[in-house]
Amino acid sequence: MCQNQELSKVDKVEKVSSIIKSFVTVLAVIVGAWWTWHTFSVLGQKAKSDLEIEDLRHRESVLNFELKAAERTLINDKNHYIEIAVHVRNAGNSDVSLCFENPDDKKDATKTNCGVKAGYPCNAPPGLNGLPSVLPPLHIVRLISAGEKSNQLISDKDEDFTATTYRDCPQGPVPVTEMRVQVGQTESYSTGVVVHKTGLYRVSFLAYVTDEQMEREMKSKSPSFVPLSRATRPFWKAETFLVVEGAGRSAHQTSP
After folding, report:
1. Is the distance from CB of 205 to CB of 137 less than 8 angstroms?
2. Which of 55, 66, 98, 134 has the CB geometry, 3.0–4.6 Å to 179, for a possible disulfide?
3. Cβ neighbours around 181 below 10 Å, total
4. pLDDT value of residue 220
5. Which domain holds residue 216?
6. Count of Cβ atoms closer than 10 Å to residue 7 Cβ
7. Is residue 42 included in any domain, yes or no?
């Protein structure tokens, strides 16, 4: 009788031991699977981050834009004033030049208002001696309803114009034709304009990519843009909207 009880206890111990071993084995498999998934997930994210960093290193032109527009009012003045400021940060690995000249107005392909070949800007005013004319980078337009039954907005022809800023030169004000942004630096372009009506305004900043920059991008391992031809020249652009109502409101837009 005692022997049977001893055998029964041994069987119970073995069963319990077997259950514990099975549980430990299953738990080990689950933990191992989770660790494998976690490890490969982390490695995958790291590899992806490394690729993104490497891609960013090879990119020539990476610009971040912040466009701000604010209404300014004066006492006893029926006009409304819009203060505009564009902040451009160079997050790429080469200096970038924003050129404010008309690419379709190049009478002489060797002459430009921008880049190292341009020289001192006050010595060669744009539009003279074969130089291209200035293409103002700022466009301001008042938006109005397209019709009583329409949800679309169209431009108000009475409040649709471009604007630029000027450089003080010995011979007088000369339009700024270029803004150079060095790697890691932030440059600003600002001006003010007068508008005569209240309402919704769109403020845009646009600058075409220079020939020099296009050639550099085409040689890059990871170009920031792929120019198809001179007719489809890439450009930098940012825009924001502002409600002018005589209360000094402001708006701004930031690019990634």
Report:
1. yes
2. 98
3. 19
4. 63
5. 63-89+135-176+187-254
6. 10
7. yes
CA distance 210 to 233: 9
Total number of domains constituting the chain: 2
**pLDDT tens digits along 48-84:** 555 555 444 445 578 899 999 999 888 888 889 999 9
- Strand, helix or coil at 185? coil
Say if CB 164 and CB 192 are below 8 A apart: no
Amino acid occupying residue 136: P
The one-letter code for the residue type at 89 is R
Buried-exposed string 36-67: b where 16+ CB fall within 10 A, e elsewhere: eeeeeeeeeeeeeeeeeeeeeeebbbebebbb
pLDDT tens-digit series, residues 75-109: 888 889 999 999 999 998 888 888 887 766 666 66
Contact 238, 87 (CB under 8 A): no
How far is residue 243 from each of residues 72, 229, 249, measured CA to CA in Å? 12, 38, 7
- Between CA 2 and CA 126 the distance in angstroms is 114
Using CA atoms, how far apart are residues 82 and 171, in angstroms rounded to an integer? 28
Containing 26, the helix (H) or strand (E) segment is helix 2-58
Neighbouring CB atoms inside 10 A of 174's CB total 18
